[in-house]
Structures are given as structure tokens and as C-alpha cells.
Predict the structure.
Amino acid sequence: MRLPPLIAVRFFEAAARHLSVRRAAAELHVTPGAVSQQVRKLEDFLGCALFERQARGLALTAAGRDYQAACGEALARIGQATSRLLAAHERRVVLVSCTPGFAAQWLVPRLQTFLQQAPLLDVHVSTTQRLVDLQAEGVQFAVRHGRGPYAGLQAERLLDDDLIAVCSPRLVAPRRTARLQDITGERLLHDGQRDDWRLWCQAQGLTGVQGVDAAQGVVFAHSNGAVEAALAGQGFALVRRTLVARELAARSLIGVQGDAALPTPLAYHLVYPPETLIDPALRQFRDWIVAQAAEPLDAPGALA
């Protein structure tokens, strides 16, 4: 079996993935000249060109595209095999990207159960509204809110996403229930999706001459800001039912008129590169989060 220079293969794969010698060099912490030298060394070994050098940068030849696919898969498998061997002796990190609201309201309150099951795994939660590039940024899992599917990624539906109106019982005291007529425009708490309240009010028949002005109210950057304001008795928040399950169970928040819901086509999806589950540690996290999402909201461990 003839094997190419493995350092040259690694440098080629980075340059092919970025289609840039400069970006490959930054990733590998070497100079662009070192990357170019290793790529030329590999081309000499193979006897064919892997790149076309163009005025605007690099383009892969047909041979280069085939070789990149094979090298990328091989390097991924080597990395995963190495991780498996190291896992028995070292702490591992699982990096998860999600929105601040999903982290605060659903993921973090449940993480203790996973950490008890996997004492050698640390879960790092990166909160952002930005659509991250999992491969480029070294993120193993992301939770995305949308319709799906997601190109190049495995996607599993975690949570359906009905919207319900909630408030603190203090807002409607001494009554223990909240009614539609309690809702006014100035009491609305928005999470950035200002149109959601308009749709909810339409569904509940609150529009018209005497209806609620859904353009009023306070706007928060994230849903957890609206939830915190609702908990403080500042108004009505329109939130995802699954994200306030703990508060509903404890009655620190109550639903309006029997939790009247607004179905949406959106859901929370767990997404990850197809090769991720080869790693047993990462598969363990995936199995756990999928099982948590499948639990009924009133299950004993659902809100641990």
C-alpha cells in the first residue's frame, strides 16, 4: 500500500475545504508558504494537479474534488478514533449552539441529569442568534428553530412549537385565572417576533374596532427577557409552551383562558454533521437530548 505524506494530506484538505491557502494556514497555525509547499509536495507525489490557480483564488480540479472527499472522510475517521481512545482517560467537551432563550428555558435546567450520567463529559453551551457553521467553528450540535431541513446536516425534530399567552398570577390577582379581556396592547411583551402577537390575537378574535393593538408593548431581544418580565408581573408574554413548562407546572406563570394556543409550522431541531454519531460520547449526548424532548412535560424527570 502506497501512502502519501500525511502532513501534506492534512494541509491539502484544509486548503481544499477553504479554497484558500491563507485561511488554511490560519487554521493550521502555519504560514501560507508552508501550506503551498505541502500541496505542491502532494501534487508531485500523485503526479497530477489538485488545484487550478485562478486570479480570484483556488478551484479544485476534478481529481482534487475526488481526493478531497476521500481525505476528508479519512481524516475525520482518524480524529474520531483518536477521540474514542482518549475518552477513557480525559474529560471531553460537547459544544452545543442554541439561542439564549432555548438555553435558559429548556436546555440548561435539564443538563444536570446528563452530567450525572456522563461524569467525564462537559457540555459547553454557546448562545447566539447567529446561524453557526458547525464544521468551521468546531460545534458538534446546534438547536435550530425553523422548518428544516438543513443542507448537509442531520436534523431531528425535538420540540413542536405552539405559542401560548402567559402571565404571572399576580397580574390578575385576586383571580386565579387569566381571561382574554385582561389582555391590552400596553401589557404585551414581545420577544422580537412582533407579528406573533398579531396572529395570536386574530386567532382569539381580539382584533377589530375594540380589539387589542398588537403593535404596542415592550420588545425584548430574546424570549427569556419576555418570560422574566412576565414572571415579574409586567405583562403577557407569548412563548413556546415547552419553554415555560416548569413555570406552568409551578404556577409561577399561568396560561390565558385554558392555554389557548397558536400552532406554527416551526419547531426546534437538533442538527449535527452526519459523521458526529460515530463518536460514542457525542452519540450519548444526542440520545439524551432526544429522550428529554420526547418526555411528557409532566413526567417526573422532565423538569429536573
User: Anything to note?
Assistant: The longest strand covers residues 92-98. Residues 62-87 form the longest helix (26 residues).
